[in-house]
């Protein structure tokens, strides 16, 4: 098993919560409510499974990866941080708008954006570790809501295959994914996904002693002492794509076949992720999307058989 049972359960629980929030957000925008902030997609032609849009999505995805690669080479940390900030604010705003609209507030989309601003600021610029994860529970449902109307069932089937092949190449062959994650965490202090630092008992005792010894020091001074003591903190991470693509897939099946179909996709993706965590070895990197994709393909088959 890659992580401890406790950490594995935390990651799986956050994954499930993000999926369920995603379905709630998709239900709202999929049935008569327009996306705010000018995010409403163009009309999709009838009988179109999203293939034309899929090509545009893949081109945009490749361009985004290339742009991010260039920015890492020229050390544009400030620009990348700003990029994360803008995307996160809009995505959180899209998700919060759903909840605020349900309680009949005036201008819910505006209030949602106002709430999203400090939440994102504290996460990205103040590196609040709690908000790093809590915000993601809203960010990915918000992003998914934009993509679901422009992709059909065939489109998402092809997209999952393409993303899985890219994930295999990026993790097992080029190592690009590891480099990108390392750059996000260590250089810009932002990670696109769930991010849980944890330590073993020995390291926890060291941390406790240092906190007691330097309890009157500032946070920066305390961090310096941690570095001097060479305290090793392990990281359990789950990439943003591994969270958002199952939401998009479940959302598309929700719109096409109904809630039961979407829940089958969500359950299959969860089981696929759990299987990966159990199979994976410590200190080794694995591409999650192939496991999630195979699991979701199986979920699609079950869905078609029973619905």
Structure explained in plain terms:
With 307 residues, the chain is mainly α. It has one domain. The chain is built from 12 helices and 2 strands; from the N terminus they run H-H-H-H-H-H-H-E-H-H-E-H-H-H. It has a two-stranded antiparallel ribbon with strand order 1-2. Helix 6 (153-173) packs antiparallel against helix 12.
The profile of the biggest β sheet is: 2 strands, antiparallel
What proportion of the residues form beta strands (DSSP E)? under 5%
Give the beta-strand count: 2
- The overall pLDDT, averaged over residues, is 84
String of helices and strands: HHHHHHHEHHEHHH
Report the C-alpha radius of gyration, rounded: 20 Å
């Amino acid at each position: 098993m890659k992580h401890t049972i406790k950490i594995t359960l935390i990651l799986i629980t956050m994954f499930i919560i993000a999926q369920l929030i995603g379905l709630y957000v998709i239900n709202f925008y999929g049935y008569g409510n327009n996306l705010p902030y000018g995010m409403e997609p163009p009309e999709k032609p009838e009988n179109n499974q999203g293939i034309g849009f899929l090509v545009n999505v893949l081109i945009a995805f490749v361009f985004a990866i290339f742009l991010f690669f260039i920015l890492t080479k020229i050390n544009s940390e400030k620009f990348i941080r700003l990029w994360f900030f803008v995307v996160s604010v809009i995505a959180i705003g899209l998700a919060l708008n759903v909840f605020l609209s349900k309680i009949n507030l005036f201008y819910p989309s505006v209030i949602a954006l106002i709430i999203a601003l400090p939440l994102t600021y504290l996460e990205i610029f103040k590196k609040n570790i709690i908000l790093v994860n809590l915000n993601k529970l809203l960010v990915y449902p918000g992003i998914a809501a934009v993509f679901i109307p422009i992709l059909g069932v065939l489109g998402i089937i092809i997209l999952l295959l393409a993303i899985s092949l890219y994930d295999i190449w990026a993790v097992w062959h080029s190592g690009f994914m590891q480099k990108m994650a390392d750059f996000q965490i260590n250089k810009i202090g932002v990670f696109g996904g769930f991010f849980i630092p944890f330590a073993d008992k020995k390291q926890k005792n060291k941390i406790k002693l240092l906190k007691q010894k330097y309890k009157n020091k500032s946070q920066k001074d305390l961090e310096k002492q941690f570095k001097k003591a060479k305290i090793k903190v392990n990281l359990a991470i789950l990439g943003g794509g591994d969270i958002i693509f199952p939401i998009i897939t479940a959302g598309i099946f929700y719109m096409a076949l109904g809630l039961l179909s979407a829940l089958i996709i969500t359950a299959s993706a969860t089981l696929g992720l759990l299987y990966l965590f159990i199979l994976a070895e410590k200190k080794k990197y694995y591409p999650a999307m192939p496991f999630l994709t195979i699991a979701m393909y199986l979920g699609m088959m079950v869905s078609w058989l029973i619905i």
